[in-house]
Amino acid sequence: MPHNPTAWWRSAAIYQVYVRSFADGDGDGTGDLAGVRERLPYLAGLGVEALWFTPWYVSPLVDGGYDVADYRAIDPAFGTLAEAEKLIDEARRLGLRTIVDIVPNHVSAEHPWFRAALAAPPGSPERDLFHFRPGRGADGELPPNDWTSEFGGVPWTRTTDPDGTPGDWYLHLFAPGQPDLNWAHPRVRREHEDILRFWFERGAAGVRIDSAALLAKDPALPDFDPDRDPHPYVDRDELHDIYRSWRAIADAHDGVLIGEIWLPDAERFARYLRPDELHTAFNFSLMSCPWDAEALRESITTTLASHADVGAPATWVLCNHDITRTVTRYGRADDTGFSFAAKRFGTPTDLALGTRRARAAALLTLALPGAVYLYQGEERGLPEAEIPLDRIVDPMHRRSGGVDPGRDGCRVPLPWEGSAPPYGFGGAATWLPQPGDWAPYTAERQDADPDSMLNLYRTAIRLRNGRTGRDDPALTWLDVPDGALAFACPDGLVCVVNLAAEPVALPAHAAVLLSSAPLDGTGLLPPDTAVWLRS
Predict the structure, then answer these.
(1) Which residues carry out catalysis?
(2) 439-458 pLDDT tens trace
(3) 183 FRET partner, CA 20 to 30 A, in 30, 63, 113, 353?
């Protein structure tokens, strides 16, 4: 069957809630479900149609909750399962659907399956659920292969046998506290299918799939060879059968599957979006692009073309819980794009310039056909925070040998009101420290300022929600000077973005609907500014 052409997920504005840092309802300095429930009117007032919650399950929080110990219970730091069910229901009453996060590549080292595997002898059925292997070298002292962890370093940890001697190694593409599951085992597949049903039956409208291209592994776990195809653990063909079974479950519950898929090959990426697999997937191409007209146009064109081949809607995102915040990234002089390998401490940025560009980028993404994802705090222009070394908790920092600052800087608790930390977040001190100059980013301050980033987003989303056919990919590029972008949508909306150093002339139009910065009435669009026109 083809994708449903009228489904909500094809063109929704979806807000990402990082629960731990959204709002604190019980005063302990950590965000929780009670805090989210209190702030639901804020989210409804923003105009978004769905909320994607990062993992809220029981977890030792080795990797911010992406190390799940129990999918059928809420971590006590966040609340209870009953409270999650209330949140889903209350959000639905406000017109907000709920998307939960599933992490199928691995579980927590505290998961009952892995604890049983560690207690069992080599070759046991309990260990078959994971990737245990003897080491290489005379005494098994070397890892079983030469792979590199997604967090840097060796993705293998050696176990200790009951008699105290070194034992087999287990695979973890991420942190040692996140052992990879063996997706060739039928019990792993059955368990995750049951997890999908569990959350769909509790009212979830969709499931976001973390690291969706990494689940399947070459059974031989060979050394990495850049010339070998297929890759030993990325984008293997076995994945598609897994997602076809998931799609049948989602369709039975009128649910949606959304994949986190980092692939450079647009054609391979699109295979996951065939009508019997995932509904949509995150498009990281635009997010990784520098602030450059040619690069952005190429990303948009390639994205729309690859999605059109399988009848799936494109998705657009500027930032998420793993990515340097947009304002900070766009304010840099040398590299305004994003890559994990390039992250370093103390990279200089011009926040005023970054804010101007982020406002323009907001109008760009909200004008494009398809769905758009908005990470919490982006609607207020939050910059990346510099976290003191002794407060960093992200394992990426430690695994990099201290070179990578990690992802904590985009995960700092949101400011809500007042002039000093904790800015109404809750508690006396937040789990990650808030900067002392964040008063301008509170919802209270920005709500009262008609020209704030918050009110720009509210207006843009309201106008977007009033458009018909906003997922129609029939976008027409318009001729504009070098350094600018302009396109017309089938409903008559024209978006122009000036990324050049000098003003550019606006195309003929009937009305100005919205601009990211003031226009002076001369018919020229200032640098680093976007405008929506009615043709």
Answers:
(1) 210, 260
(2) 999 999 999 999 999 999 99
(3) 63
